[in-house]
Amino acid sequence: MSLPPHEPPPFSLEQRRAQDGSRVVTVRGEIDLATAPEVQQALGARQDGEIALVLDLLGTSFLDSSGIRVLVEAHRHGAAQGVPFRVAGSRPVRELLETTGVAAHLELVDAPPA
User: Fold this and answer.
1) What is the pLDDT of residue 75?
2) Is residue 6 part of a domain?
3) 50 SS3 class
């Protein structure tokens, strides 16, 4: 008897406007070379009246260097536009960001706004 092959959770990306006016981009599954462009496009699509951009990675199971690059670019773009960029990450995502030193340049939050 063999075990079924491990399959990563399916990738999904959703956007919503929080009650405080922040735009929340929620990503589930993996952010890797194949999915990073979609995340980058969503984060780069600034909207009028946006007071902050929050990337919800609580359901993200994997983040590679292309995903980290997307986060760094979103932070830089937000700083240039005067729109704060925040990241809500699961424990593994936070540990990765801390290990790589990227966490020192991002605003990490426990959860996205309601």
Assistant:
1) 97
2) no
3) coil
The pTM (predicted TM-score) of the whole model is: 0.91
Alpha carbons 19 and 65: distance in angstroms, whole number: 32
Q: pLDDT tier at 47 (50, 70, 90 boundaries)? A: confident
Q: Does residue 109 register a pLDDT over 80?
A: yes
pLDDT at 6: 67
| Residue burial 95-112, b: 16+ Cβ < 10 Å; e: rest | ebbeeeebbeebebeeeb
- Placement of tokens 């809500």 in the chain: 88
- CATH number where 48 lies: 3.30.750.24
Answer for the pair 75, 16: CB distance below 8 angstroms, yes or no: no
What total of structural domains would you count in the chain?
1
Q: Between the CA atoms of 4, 94, 76 and 24, what dihedral angle is there, to the nearest 10 degrees? A: 70
What lies within 8 Å, CB to CB, of 55 at 6+ separation is: 25, 27, 39, 43, 71, 74, 85, 86, 87, 88
